[in-house]
TrEMBL record, chains B, D:
One of its GO terms (cellular component) is cytosol. It comes from Cryobacterium algoritolerans. This is Dihydroxyacetone kinase subunit L. GO terms for biological process: glycerol catabolic process. Keywords: Kinase, Transferase. The lineage of its organism: Bacteria, Bacillati, Actinomycetota, Actinomycetes, Micrococcales.
Length: 341, 214, 341, 214
């Protein structure tokens, strides 16, 4: 076990790989009086629970994607987020505890990103909740990453950017008082209507590994990268923003027809890329969508679902409708997303 | 002969030795996971197994059930990721199948291990050739059973299992992953050993070494 | 002039160094219907001007510090932001144009970060405004960076993190209807009560330079770095978060006595550092402040004033009072800071 | 002799040559600014001077005033940073002092340049030894005046100014910066040539070369 004052062997503002999760939760607790952090169970809750009789939303996953998920706990979005070790799903006992705490009598929606570990751990959590409590649990598994092509021969598509939009929209549906089946249905609809694709210019470095997960030559980028540094579709020569935007948007548009409906578009930074580049990319994405006759009703540009210090970005497009747009616009008050409040 | 049974203490020694091995090989396991996953298998296994060993040292188990149920629960609640539920279920099923006994005979051990394998399959749905820990676990247990059927004692059967585990581990290199995080790579997963296969091989190395020492 | 599709010679999501400012402004315009971008003059305005009779706030500076300043244009904060080339002050004609547009009859406060170029360009802008229009202009020059020790023998302290807090608080004072002198006085008070200090783990890369501004060995960091990659107080061995926090907070605390008043604390990321590390740092900063008997009334953790892709962070502490806290809590609706609305 | 006056066209040639030189040396200027500033002096100067030259080419100036007022305004409105107002004011003052004339004689040129220097000081408050462009501009103009006083013609005086400029530029290396962005470095600014001093030396190189060619 490394001690606090040791010199880190990588360029990260941490005390040690072993303490980074606990230390970051301490920072979250110190920064946000609106949140209550259960340090023993590594769960971030709203300080003030929602009204009784409303459906609660629980998500969680490996740490390293901040603000996801803890940054989306608050009015109009999640009720709690379980934090796993870096890039590692949280454990079933966390999901059980969180489920018990957040249930307000109307059941709990588990929002799970489609990774084997997350799915299995949430599954066991839900099994334990069913065995120990009478709490109704519904599950939505987000799998929106078009980078995974042969999804029938794999663990399926990964859950990435659409998770952010889903947590916002389902959160609004729950806040509005819809019942568990209806909130789960909205969540399912968002998942079916959202698609994402990402690019890495550099690898992330997992603190416990101490070195970059993969090595990208100076003149190459990884198209279709996952938010854990999983390799993507292919390595290609580095290109300008317009060409990168094309390589991200085209696979999305060929996967789903986005015409004829208002869309919500997110240009998401992966952690090491500054906002100025995200805006440059967003301009290019919009040019492509405009040319394709796709209507952009709402935009989100920033770091929302990250991969530690990876340089790169992802594009998410959600085919919405009036109901989804209204839910999107509803008030939200979290550290990561806030409006109308 | 004493080698025809295995005691709770020996089984505790197995888990302790497994912890030593994953700790020794932590960088290797993480490196394998960097190539086709997310670079955390080493830290996942050491976090889990060191917690298991801490628990064993704090309060040694009296029965096989207690030992493996404790180890399984510890893994399930401390690892996360894919390996937590998979290794956790493996041990939980071993415990439940063995029951509250102080020793296991060879058939008892074999059927407990096979129940563990059943748990892994129930949880992860892996099939032969999917390039997962299953591709080590299944041939290792087949070799274990075959050795016992050929009237080996438990230590020899464990050595046979370890040998099959190594072969299974190395064979994952040529496979295209169809389960877990590595499956996202498609063709690009070929050429790399599966990290879970490598840690499972260490599990059988630990068993062989623990029993060999006596 | 490079063409759009050329392969970039650095790992940045841009089309070319020459177009990055225009391209990012295009992205801002596409993403934020609440903003109006004057592309010719490179000015970001509120789409809906504030009510007549209220003091307007104008800021600006070199691009590369996003969300500052354009991300702080909106209700409760700035009325306009002039964007210069990367790390280069905007030009006087921009300030003149913006001043004319935002004035609602009550005068305009220019918020200038203390760099020779910014000060001179805003100065000329104000001179032109005085010559050409009858608009009253007041100026506040932010100089809060304690890294600059011998400020009497230099161009003075640099303007860094306090700028964010000042724009928020003075913006609220203006929204409340205070007159130009009063808004300027509040701004001045914030400047006098705020102190900052930053650290770089890596250099930034200015697109037109094409390579890192400075080279930091793998085991060193730059304490007291500026937001343009200006060298700081000293290079020291890389250290853990607790030790880095100490090296940032101590110079701040020895520069001003923060006890006996509520403080606002910002832990700011410099662009290439992910949120998880900022929370780890924030936890350490709070430990030090708690031990020093300093009361933290409000917290802000995230990327607010950045230095392109630099990895690192800065700490800003503002000694507040009831008035400043109330102004801080007042509604704000910008892309970079939003609450209460 | 014709060398005793300088025409608008020659002065336009000076600015054109200055643009060529900063364009050639853009990386060098940026590198100097990377060491003690913010790595933009090269792109600032080329952005400004290429705009100046574009304007000259689009509509050649008829008078010295028109030329330099146009150049100064272009710099002020296209550069930003510290160099925009400083170089801009330098040229604006030259234009205003020279007035709407087609040629300048040697004393006229000298006093226009000195007015430019006055503008730089008025704007930037730099003093001798602050490690700025002033430390090139001041000795270069002193040398220019001294050469004229010693009855040199304008081209020789320009060569003398350039020589003094180079000396001034190199001398900034040993100085501790007290103005501009480099001043934040304190002791650490020592050992680097000031970027603005380097670009100002190019300004005199351009003058010497332009006049030398005739
Ligand atoms: N469905 C599955 N069935 C069996 N084993 C699996 C399955 N999915 C993944 N694994 C095993 O888990 C290993 C990865 O474990 P680990 O890296 O700890 O978890 P994660 O993939 O969540 O990061 C893989 O190498 C593989 O052997
Ligand atoms: N107060 C001043 N007086 C004279 N020259 C100055 C002053 N401040 C800065 N300079 C000059 O400006 C140069 C820097 O110009 P530039 O890099 O273009 O602007 P910035 O510093 O705003 O990035 C310095 O090298 C110095 O010669
Ligand atoms: Mg993992
Ligand atoms: Mg893994
Ligand atoms: Mg500059
Ligand atoms: Mg500069």
């Amino acid at each position: 076990m490394k001690v606090n004052q040791e010199v880190p062997d990588m360029k990260k503002l941490i005390n040690s790989p072993e303490t980074v999760l606990a230390d970051s939760l301490a920072g979250v607790a110190a920064a946000h009086p609106d949140l209550r952090v259960d340090h023993a169970n590594r769960i971030i809750f709203r300080a003030t629970p929602k009204a009784a009789g409303k459906v609660a939303l629980l998500s969680g996953g490996g740490t390293g994607h901040e603000p996801l998920h803890g940054g989306f706990v608050g009015e109009g979005m999640l009720d709690a987020a379980c934090a796993g070790a870096i890039f590692t799903s949280p454990t079933p006992d966390q999901m059980l505890e969180a489920t018990k705490v957040v249930d307000r009598g109307a059941g709990v929606l588990h929002i799970v990103k489609n990774y084997t570990g997350d799915v299995m751990n949430f599954e066991i959590g839900a099994e334990l909740a069913a065995a120990e409590t009478g709490i109704k649990v519904a599950v939505v598994v987000v799998n929106d990453d078009v980078a995974v092509e042969d999804s029938s021969f794999t663990a399926g598509r990964r859950g990435v950017g659409t998770t952010v939009l889903l947590e916002k929209i389902a959160g609004a549906a729950a806040e509005e008082g819809r019942d568990l089946a209806a909130v789960a249905a909205v969540a399912q609809k968002v998942n079916e209507s959202g698609r994402s694709m990402g690019v890495a210019l550099t690898s992330c470095t997992v603190p416990s590994a101490g070195k970059p997960t993969f090595v990208l030559p100076d003149d190459e980028m990884e198209i279709g990268v996952g938010i854990h540094g999983e390799p993507g579709r292919r390595r290609v020569p580095l290109a300008g923003a317009a060409e990168v935007a094309r390589q991200l948007v085209e696979p999305i548009l060929s996967d789903l027809d986005f015409t004829g409906a208002p869309t919500i578009v997110m240009l998401n930074g992966l952690g090491g890329t500054p906002l100025i580049e995200l805006y440059v990319m967003y301009a290019e994405v919009r040019k492509i969508l405009d040319a394709a006759g796709i209507t952009v009703a709402r935009s989100l540009v920033g770091n929302y679902i990250t991969a530690l210090d990876m340089a790169g970005c992802s594009v998410t497009i959600l085919k919405a409708d009036d109901d989804l747009l209204r839910l999107w616009d509803a008030p939200v008050n979290t550290s990561g997303l806030r409006w109308g409040i | 002969m004493t080698n025809e049974t295995i005691s709770v203490d020996q089984l505790s020694g197995w888990l302790t030795r497994f912890n030593d091995l994953v700790t020794e090989q932590v960088s290797y396991l993480t490196e394998l996971d960097s190539a086709i996953g997310d670079a955390d298998h080493g830290s996942n296994m050491t976090r889990g197994m060191s917690a298991v060993v801490e628990k064993i040292q704090a309060s040694p188990a009296g029965t096989v059930d207690e030992l493996f149920t404790g180890a399984g629960m510890t893994l399930v609640t401390s690892v996360g990721g894919a390996s937590g539920p998979l290794y956790g279920t493996f041990f939980l099923r071993i415990g439940a199948t063995a029951g509250p006994v102080g020793t296991l005979d060879a058939p008892g051990l074999a059927s407990a291990l096979r129940a563990g394998l059943g748990g892994v399959v129930a949880r992860g749905k892996a099939e032969v050739g999917d390039k997962t820990m299953f591709d080590v676990l299944a041939p290792a247990l087949d070799a274990f059973d075959a050795a016992l059927a050929g009237s080996s004692d438990i230590p020899s059967a464990a050595r046979a299992a370890y040998s099959a585990a190594q072969t299974g581990r190395d064979a994952t290199q040529a496979l295209l992953a169809r389960k877990g995080r590595a499956s996202y790579l498609g063709e690009r997963s070929i050429g790399h050993i599966d990290p879970g296969a490598a840690s499972t091989s260490l599990l059988f190395q630990a068993l062989a070494e623990t029993l060999g020492k006596e």
